[in-house]
Amino acid sequence: xxxxxxxxxxxxxxxxxxxxxxxxxxxxxxxxxxxxxxxxxxxxxxxxxxxxxxxxxxxxxxxxxxxxxxxxxxxxxxxxxxxxxxxxxxxxxxxxxxxxxxxxxxxxxxxxxxxxxxxxxxxxxxxxxxxxxxxxxxxxxxxxxxxxxxxxxxxxxxxxxxxxxxxxxxxxxxxxxxxxxxxxxxxxxxxxxxxxxxxxxxxxxxxxxxxxxxxxxxxxxxxxxxxxxxxxxxxxxxxxxxxxxxxxxxxxxxxxxxxxxxxxxxxxxxxxxxxxxxxxxxxxxxxxxxxxxxxxxxxxxxxxxxxxxxxxxxxxxxxxxxxxxxxxxxxxxxxxxxxxxxxxxxxxxxxxxxxxxxxxxxxxxxxxxxxxxxxxxxxxxxxxxxxxxxxxxxxxxxxxxxxxxxxxxxxxxxxxxxxxxxxxxxxxxxxxxxxxxxxxxxxxxxxxxxxxxxxxxxxxxxxxxxxxxxxxxxxxxxxxxxxxxxxxxxxxxxxxxxxxxxxxxxxxxxxxxxxxxxxxxxxxxxxxxxxxxxxxxxxxxxxxxxxxxxxxxxxxxxxxxxxxxxxxxxxxxxxxxxxxxxxxxxxxxxxx
Length: 592
Description:
Elements: E1 23-29, H1 32-41, E2 42-48, E3 53-58, H2 60-67, E4 72-77, E5 80-83, H3 91-94, H4 97-102, E6 111-116, E7 134-135, H5 149-152, H6 171-180, E8 196-201, E9 208-210, H7 211-223, E10 228-231, E11 233-234, H8 240-251, E12 255-259, E13 279-285, E14 301-306, E15 310-314, E16 318-322, H9 325-341, H10 347-357, H11 365-368, H12 375-378, E17 390-399, E18 406-415, E19 421-430, E20 435-443, E21 448-457, E22 466-475, E23 480-488, E24 501-509, E25 515-525, E26 531-540, E27 545-552, E28 557-567, E29 571-580, E30 585-591
Parallel strand pairs: 6-8, 6-10, 7-8, 10-12, 12-13, 13-14
Antiparallel strand pairs: 1-3, 1-4, 2-3, 5-9, 5-11, 15-16, 17-18, 18-21, 19-20, 19-22, 22-23, 23-30, 24-25, 25-28, 26-27, 26-29, 29-30
């Protein structure tokens, strides 16, 4: 755990200061008047933030005067944070990240900022995942640090800096590999092997960095729209300017994860920024899920993750075992990327998904928080060997009869990855009359089944009622999935004009976190040969239409495929409506 300078208690002891006597402070302001006062007092303005703060070099007496200015929120000496260190794991299997990856979850499309000592710009298993990076001026890469690596307090003596954010220490590269080393057959596997990594170099080659550099890195990352910020760093004391930066990032939806610190054994010693309530604080466990003896603990801990002898990447194309809560933190950062890629984008919902899925490994709450990280369970998977069955298709079409009943064919297809299918239960409900008309059960087995089931509403008067067919598929372990489709009965007319029929209605879902995209394949027919239009629509849960495609048709039959898309919209149903020239229409919906 880093030792940091304190706040201002003795600054007024110095009068007119020379340049050598100037101190570097972070000033939080309330308004433009406070900003102007700070600038007037400054011998040099080092940095201005987009939020209400700036970093200045100033005489101690002037700094004390600023503390007493009502337009100034705080004045703090620009202390430093350091990388939490020690040696590294196996944590991919322990956290079931490997199961998530095997299930096709890779974190693709998600941006993870590693706010640290940089990332090796050419590592064999990281380079494919590297995006744009950034470095604070005081932290920029150097080849003259002196060696010793994270454990020795010096840099790694790389021979060349390939970018200003290149890693001259090892620590940031190690964290990056745990979060998102590529699944490319080389070296190690990260938690989210297709997430994009961004080096945000705020710690110099000796592993330390000033509060304002760290705040600036958080600010830069948030401005780039990064989804996750991984911070394996911290200090004993809070920093107001870093706190302001955390608020800035939180307001922009960034999920922030930080190492709890290496001050253990202790009971209430979580470092900053991990103890900030906008940040997920991570403690460290070993391969047996025991608490690491160095791990900081306290009520702010929310998750535990592997952090003892963790194997990961170091420059150049090398690998090493490190230990520390620094190594635990990127396990959770990678998991957050996986949850976001899976479609959960709200920062609080991501946090909830991770906490709800954690495994209780028998540690005290201030040691493990909600438990030890479980990546697969956070994505709805897990290692219990039983996934819920899936409804792959459900369509309902009216059958023309002469017996006075309303009859429908429900065509369906179901599957189960575990091969444990047991039963398909179908219920026909007359929504207009508010009555259940028929319930039937079909026995199924294996990993896939499909059929068409006839359902009858006996004695229907042909008045054009709305019907819903609900399908529940259950496996032998009792897990189930429900889907529903709707259809409107054709109204009987005196001139013999019948409503169109929907013969095929299939929906393919190609949605991602940014777009709701569906391809609708349809075939319709009309016994009277006077088809007019077919319309497909995306509907939200409240029935709002967010995209529509309408096609002019004619004759007795028609088929086509429509592409529907809407940006960042929660689509609940796809509706298909077929209309003939007489105004008769048939409507069906599918849940998505």
